[in-house]
Amino acid sequence: MTDTSDLGDIRGHADHSSNLGFDTRAIHHAFDPAGFSRAVKPPVFLTSTYGFESVAENDAAAALGGRLYAREYNPTTEILEQRLANLEGAEAGLVLSTGMAAFGTLVLSLLSQGDELVVHKTLYSNTVAMVEQGLPRFGIKVVPVDLSEPGKLNAAITERTRLVYFETPVNPLSAILDIAAIAEQAHARKVKVAVDSTFASPALQRPLEYGADLVLHSLTKYINGHGDTLGGALLGDAETLHTLHETGLRYITGATLSPLSAFLILRGLKTLSLRMERHSASALKIARMLEAHPAVAWVSYPFLESHPGFATARKQMAQGSGMLAFGLHAGFDGARTMMDRLKLLTRAVSLGDADSLIYHPASLMRARQSIRKDAQLADGVGEELIRLSVGLEDVNDLIADLQQALQPL
Ligand code: PLP
Fold it and tell me: Which N-terminal residues, if any, form the signal peptide (predicted)?
């Protein structure tokens, strides 16, 4: 029987000692209907500012951490922050308008001119743009390292290193990095570790449990899960989150999440682990089908025995998630032909949606080069790579669509 003695706490502030299960907290944590006319769903507060009965009350709200104005405070958004923090096992959380806004807020708040940031050599393409083109303009040195060999970290860290940042699973190849091994190396040199856990979501992987200090999510992906809004989140210790909130959000980026988006993301979050189970089961089935297909040269899916990160994935992830990458013997041109034959899967960037989304990074990169000459594929991403975000459709329909598209190319 579930222990319900924590139900009193769940509705208040984050309580990590709660015995309640992940799904119960994903549905109830930090929302007390008694405070909101007994509404079962959290109201959406569409207000830009807050009025006060007296100047003294106004002062008290300011002392509470800028609860004066909706850039820094909104009751709907606060529920989402507390719920996400609880699900990640973090002391505090901050939500922002997009995943990129979360990354910008993180690095521009914690690093200054002359500081150094160590990153894994492969990252989401716009994070690459930020670290290669954005941060150096502000005098922040970025040091790319192959973190699949955590031993390489020690030589990359100097006394100016402030943060180690990486994704796992890594976009777009779904490579796996060992969170515990990297955190151990970084902490030995007193450097903090931030993990972009977007590809997994807290239903499958909680990096803080493996020693990371901070977690970043694009809420646009699995956590919202329905492809109808953008959002980002940062989760970690209360002191760092206070800095990210008080300087980062308030005046460095001002990248506030809309309360309507917070509502949608709270709604999506309720079904997160159900969805992740289906995404993962279908992706594994599709990965196995592709691995056995004569037109397919390679498949990368963390829960395939052939994946180089299989053991680490099994250690730090509950399931493999819905993201996989594969390449065809027919290469770049074959990828384009195969994608054009698809009838059910949607050709689109983004991921973590109920709809299956498929995309060919090399095609988009070539198209982008017409407007940005220096555009290039991230390290480790080949011209043949196809990335697939497996959705929630019937898996047999997805397999049939892929198989008809893979007819001799
Ligand atoms: N991190 C990862 C791993 C991503 O895949 C993305 C977007 O695709 C982002 C961050 C950026 O998130 P957003 O699109 O919400 O800005």
Answer: none
